[in-house]
Design a protein that fits this description.
The complex is a heterodimer of chains A (about 240) and B (about 220). Chain A has about 240 residues and is mainly alpha-helical. In chain A, about 75% of the residues lie in helices and about 5% in strands. In chain A, β1 and β2 form a beta hairpin. In chain A, α2 runs parallel beside α8, α3 runs antiparallel to α4 and α3 runs antiparallel to α8. Chain A is globular, with a radius of gyration of 21 Å. Chain A starts with a helix and ends with a helix. Chain B is mainly α and about 220 residues long. In chain B, α2 runs antiparallel to α3 and α3 crosses α6. The longest helix of chain B is centred in the middle third of the chain and has 30 residues. Chain B starts with a helix and ends with a helix. The chains are: A mainly alpha (about 240), B mainly alpha (about 220).
């Protein structure tokens, strides 16, 4: 299963990246000049295909981490905590990717990598939260206690995510596309073909996430089994 | 309630947390007024300064909520005599009282050193009060978490700061609006955000506290 999944992920990723540059037409945006509105090409918009799925996987990763933290607190089974750890790590990495690709876009469209835009701030705060999660993990020596405490923090921290992602950017003014650039059918920025490619990207990123998560969880379990083996040998 | 009374009694005897909080806010305020005293401050800067001082004073005082129990060796006795919910409620109320006192000390001090000339005082007070409520609601559980970890000093701030961002954003915004003499209707979003955040954090803490407190 895991072996086949690798090929599925590879095929999906290759297909999405190729289609993003071939099948998907170049985005256009309206330009107002001399009282007339013309649609001009907007190739930079393509980063959207890589940026939005990263942000989606970051949210998914943190959500999965929270659910498996709850499961750990219920069962006290270290296997649940392995998933929570792996998923937080992946969420963290994809969050960083979303931030970096967002910054490239910001440099191009808004003129600077960092604009203190509420969206940029909230993603940075997400990184801080899960940075805190890993710091806390390394600060507790006793393994069972560590799993229990970080599970609590993971659940507690996830509750801030909807506030940071949905509420704060609406209280403050933002330059981020989703309130400003309309990506619906009427505006013409995205057409049906782009939309298909975008959904394929969501799918292939999710496949990528599942693939890495599986590997990471197995590594964690093997290394624990190894430690147990070594301890058993020492005792013997 | 008994826990709240016990904590207040021991605080009155030692005044450790209260001294830390009040002196911290006096010192930072003095530094700030050295740097900016001769200039008029815009409401944005003024509101941010108030909240920065509240935040760091709270970090200095509230981090010790549960650590003191471990240091005095009274943690086990507390575990035996009270349920988790009672302990959490007592500690939360104690933190709330501390922050309330901080607000009461801080605003008159601000009036002396960096006067707020005109404001919608009701909104300013409600914003600070609700902000303190949300602060106490979100940090009490973090204080319990930190007491379990090895490194105690910086960890509390590292873990609390990101969780408190929505509170700080809404708090600064409500205080700024109060100083701009905005009517109440303008600050509804901020007040809703503070109340709902405090409510969610409290509910969640009640559910999670036992997992931290009991082995």
């Amino acid at each position: 299963m895991a072996r086949a999944w690798k090929w599925v992920t590879g095929a999906l990723m290759t297909a999405s990246i190729l289609l993003a540059f071939t099948y998907s037409p170049v985005a256009t945006r309206p330009r107002f000049e001399g009282g007339q509105t013309t649609m001009v090409p907007w190739p930079e918009f393509r980063i959207f295909f890589f940026h939005v799925p990263s942000a989606w996987i970051a949210t998914l990763g943190f959500l999965v981490a929270m659910i498996w933290s709850i499961r750990y607190l219920k069962t006290r089974d270290p296997k649940q905590d392995d998933v929570a750890l792996a998923s937080s790590e992946l969420g963290f990495v994809f969050c960083a990717v979303a931030l970096a690709s967002g910054m490239i876009w910001a440099r191009r469209e808004w003129g600077a990598f960092w604009n203190w835009d509420p969206r940029q701030n909230t993603v940075l705060i997400l990184l801080l939260i899960y940075g805190g999660y890993f710091t806390l993990r390394s600060a507790i020596a006793d393994e069972d206690k560590r799993r229990r405490i970080v599970a609590v923090y993971s659940i507690f921290a996830f509750v801030t995510v909807p506030f940071l992602v949905f509420v704060v950017p609406r209280v403050m003014e933002t330059l981020h596309p989703s309130p400003i650039i309309k990506t619906d059918q009427q505006s013409g920025v995205m057409n049906a073909k782009m939309r298909q490619v975008f959904y394929l990207f969501l799918l292939s990123y999710t496949a990528l996430y599942v693939w890495i998560l599986n590997i990471r969880v197995r590594v964690e379990r093997l290394s624990r089994a190894n430690v147990v083996d070594l301890q058993a040998q020492e005792v013997a | 309630m008994a826990i709240l009374a016990k904590d207040i009694r021991s605080e009155v005897r030692t005044r450790a947390a209260l001294n830390a909080i009040v002196l911290f806010s006096v010192v930072t305020l003095a530094v700030v007024s050295y740097a900016t005293g001769s200039f008029g401050l815009s409401p944005e800067v003024h509101a941010s300064l108030i909240w920065i001082i509240v935040f760091f004073a709270a970090m200095a005082g509230l981090s010790r909520t549960f650590v003191v129990e471990a240091e005095r060796g009274t943690e086990v006795a507390l575990k035996l005599t009270a349920s988790g919910t009672q302990v959490f409620l007592g500690k939360f109320l104690f933190n709330l009282v501390l922050l309330g006192l901080l607000d009461l000390v801080l605003i008159p001090l601000f009036q002396i050193l960096l006067p707020i000339r005109e404001a919608n005082w009701g909104l300013l007070g409600i914003g600070l009060g609700l902000g303190s409520l949300a602060l106490a609601a979100s940090t009490t559980l973090v204080a319990a978490i930190v007491a379990q970890a090895g490194v105690k000093g910086a960890l509390f701030t590292v873990l609390s700061f990101p969780i408190l961002i929505p509170v700080l954003v809404a708090g600064v915004s409500s205080t700024r609006k109060a100083m701009d003499l905005a009517p109440w209707a303008d600050a509804v979003t901020e007040i809703q955000l503070l109340v709902s955040y405090a409510g969610i954090m409290l509910t969640l803490s009640f559910f999670l506290f036992d997992s931290v407190w009991r082995d």
